[in-house]
Every structure is written in C-alpha cells, then in structure tokens.
What does this fold into?
Amino acid sequence: MSRLRVLAGPELNAGAESFAAHTQRLGAPQSTGRPLIETLVRSELTGRGGASFPVGVKWRSVVAAKGSPVVIANGAEGEPQSHKDKLLMATRPHLVLDGAFIAARTVHARQVVLYIGEEHKAPWAAMARALNERPEGERRIARIVAAPHRYVAGDSSAAVHLIDDGVATPTTTPPSTHERGIDGSPTLVQNVETLAHIALIARYGDSWYRSAGRRGAAGTVLVTMAGGVKHAGVLEVEAGTTVEEAVAMAGGVSEPASAVLIGGYFGAWVNAAKAWDLPLDNASLQTRGLSLGCGVVGVLPAARCGVCDTSRIMRYLALESSAQCGPCFFGLRALSDACSRIAERGANRDDLARLKKWALEVPGRGACKHPDGAVMFLRSALSTFADEFAGHPAHWRQQPA
Amino acid sequence: MSTQLLWYTTRGAGAVSLILLSAVVILGVLSSLRVQSAGWPRFLTTGLHLNLALMTVVFLALHIVTAVVDPFTHLGWLVAVVPFSSYYRTLWLGLGTIAFELLAAIVVTSLLRGFIGPAAWRAVHWLAYGSWPIAVIHGFGTGTDAWSVWFLVLSILCISAVAIAVAYRLVNRAGDPLSAARTEFRAGVARRPDR
It folds into this structure.
C-alpha cells in the first residue's frame, strides 16, 4: 500500500502511533503565526473534507474576523464509501492533533473541538488516548464532541450548530463558519486530513509540500479505493496521479469496469474509458466539471448495473435530507422515487423526462449544498448511463445491494 | 417633455403601483398556505411575489420621479425622502413617503437576506402590513383621481382582495408539511455536548 507522507512511519496495523514515537520520528513543529499562514497560502493546500476550500485563505479570514476564534477538527466522515479520515485518526492521531493545535496557536483560538463520528469506535478511542498524552496546556483547551451518524452532520455549519444548539443540521450560509461560527466567533473548521498535512507543512515548508505531486499538482492526497478493485482501501498518492495508476496501486480491477465514481456521493460518475486518464487533483478535475470531493474512487464492475446503484445512492441521499428545506426534502424524494421506478419496473419515458426536468429545478434551493450535491451526482449518472436509463430492464431485485 | 405628460405619468404610475403592491401583499399573505397544483408549482407563489415586488419599486420610482421633476409641482427632492416636508398636502403626501420608505426597507432587507439572517429579515417584513394601508390612504388623500369612479372601483377591488386574502389566511392556518419529518430527523442528530 502506498503511504507517502501523512501515513508514513510505522506499520498501520500496529495501531495508533504514540506521542513519544511521533515526536521522535518527526520532531516538534517549527512554524506558527503569520509566517505559517503565508506558507499555507503558498503551498496551495486545499481542504480535504470535500469542498476543497483554500486553507491559507480560510486562516487569513479567521485571523481578520472579530472575536476569539475556535478550531474544529472535523473527523465526522459521514461519506459511506470513505475511510481515509477514520484510518488517519486511528493510526496517526498526533499528526491530526499537531495540526489542530498549530491552528489554535496561529489563530489564537480559545478552544479546540475534536468532532468525531460517534460510530467510528477505533478512531475515537485512538484520538481520546492521544489527547491524554498531550501537554496540559493543550489538553485544557480541547474536548471531543460526538458527530451523529448522519450524512449532513459532517457539514461545517452542522458541526457548529451541534456544538452551539445540540442539533447537527446545516444552517444557511453566508455567513460561513470561518466568519461566524460557535457563539458567533470565527470558527476554523478543517478536515482531519487537512490538519495532518498542515502539521507536516509547519515542519518542512511549502516547497517541500509542493515537491510531491505530478502533472502540475501539489502535495499528496488520501483516496479511498472502493468497488471493483482487488484491494479496496485507503491509499496516499501524489496529487495528479491518474485513476488508472491509483487502481493499479490497489491491485488493479477485479473484473472489467464500466464506470468510475469520482468524489463519493457528492461526486460524479465517469465512463470508465474516460476515467482512467483523469488526474486525482481537484484543480484539474474542476476544469473538467468534476471534483475530488472526499477522495473516493469507486470502480463499477461491468457486471453491476449503474442504474440500480445510482437508484440506491439517490434513495440514501434523499433519506439523509435534514427536512429543513422543501426543495431538498420533497425534491430528492421525488427524484429518488423516479429512479427507483426505473430500476424496479424498467425504463419509461415519463420518469426519465421527470428526472431531467427536476434535476434542473432543485439545485441552489436549499440552505446547504445537500440537494446540489445529490443532483450533480444524479445528472452525471443520467449522462454516463444514458443508454442504461433509456433501456433499463426490471431487474432491481436480482442484484445484491 | 410636456408638463401634462409628467402629471399623467405620476397618476398612472401611482395607480399601477397600487395594483402591483396589492398583488404582492396578497401573494405574501397566502404564501404560507403552500398552495400548489400541477399547473401552479409552489415556487411560483414566492417567485411571483418577489418579481412583482421588484416591479412595484420600478413603478413607484416612476411615480415619485415624475412628481418631483414636474416643474408645476415645485416639490423638490427632499419630499421623496423626508415625510411631511411638503408644502402641498403635507399629511397625505407624507404618508406616501412613509409607505415608500417602509417598502424600500422590505426590498433592501430581502435582497440582503443572506447577510442579515432570516430573523431580522422576517421582523422587517412585518412592515408590509404598515406599508400597504398607508399607501392606500395616501392614494385617497393625495390622489387627483381619488374620487373618480375608476379609481374608486380600483381601490375597492384592491382593498377587498387583500382583506379576503388576510381573512382566508387567518381561517386556514396551514401546518408545515416538513415539521414532522424535521422533528424525526432532529431526534437522530440531537446531542447536547458537555460545555
């Protein structure tokens, strides 16, 4: 398995690296304060939670905002196919904590919240143990908060909403959480993988960070290889590595593939033939209308039906709507029902026309991006599996979930 | 431009503004009932409410600008902003200024809703119940056409339409069809973290 930087060090099945081992291997981080923010800007590091927001820009805005900031390390990882955050927290908890406390020192935060999915038992235990090994000054300002096991709970505004009011549902943006978050204070929410990269950038600098990366991309990225590959699981690859190369690192395809899901459930299906050459780098994916999202690369074997799998995922996303906005709650249900009818009873022109029409009406009408992400996913399915949707047989029940 | 034309424009734009504003109020009052059918999707109510409100502002601007620039009136620009500063029909014209300013506050806060937040927006939006009646009174008090038959019929139609909409709304308090689903979802995501 490929593990270049944030996953480097002792074997991963040895469990969490202790504070002593971590400090001996990497030394103490050097850089904090204003110079670090400029280093992060130059590194071009972007957030790894899914939205790929530039890290340096976010830190600048937290420092500029009025109020005493809070840092949230986001380890909710609600994306069902993604495992990289769980693996990172379970094996390299001190790299994540380094990043979180470096962030706290840099933006002068009064508090650090470790926001961890309540169902992630091993990562939770590793993080709790690691926190206990930290110096008193760090332990005093930190606490762990359980993220409910729901898809939307990983949204940064949902994290703030939970910590403030006890309800992990997203709230309207703007203002974004880095402008107005916990108790109205600027709140720096960063995904745990992002924090791990920050911990290394604070030690080795931005040119070191950019020295990895291929085809013009910078740094390394954690991806979760899922579906029809021989060894499904997490890989750390250089940014810009192609899908084909990443699949090869995962042992190759287990059987011929028809399509690849890039970026998880908020991502997009791409025809296998077109997908192999795609670089795993958010900037270049965006020029193609795609996104790396949380780094899931799901390979669909040709024997599986893209319509049925799309239908299952749409059902999941519809049920994960937090029922705050009508267009999301009713819209995603209607879209999911139309998908299910095609999957269960076979192709029909009415439902196909409805899907195409409604998919244009839903985006942008919710407080958060949940409906937008679901619809983007659906639209990629409608174009990638255009023939399958048009001539789908009624075979939903015959295929295992 | 002839002075006559300006004067006719002021009166015409005033009457059109009254019709539009009444339609906006009716759509706003009824929007919480969440009326929908195959031919009238839900967003049509809010979309129409919004677009008619913006159109009202355009006709109000025409109404005010033509009245002020009309050399015959000698009103001056201050009248458009400061209530009761007019030598001419001080009270009735001042009510028009107030109605306009309330409406402007509603429109501006609606355009900035993302920044000021839904609570502040909603509070300001209640001013609509002040703006519309004041505008109607302004029409009767100042209006050159106030006692002409066509304007009377128009005003009565607008007043009764708004009254019917408000009464209908008070009688039919539609529940939030999302509230049950929202409560159920929140039960799954609610945790009170130790502070």
